[in-house]
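#struct-help
A.M.: can someone run this one for me? Single chain, 54 residues.
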Amino acid sequence: MSLSNTLTTVPLSVVVTVTTSSVAVTTVGVVTAVTVITTVAVSQVIVPTFVQIS
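D.P.: on it. Structure tokens below:
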């Protein structure tokens, strides 16, 4: 079975659902990664400052 035949038999709604869900997962992953990186970066800057103050 060729790819074009498979794509035509798959309903558009399924394609949209899969695409949307994968985009959502990717977005969540990116946001999580950015949040973690930002948190680590901020803690690297803030923690030594607090240690110096105290």
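A.M.: thanks! The two ends are 70 Å apart (CA to CA).
D.P.: also worth noting: The chain has a mean pLDDT of 86.
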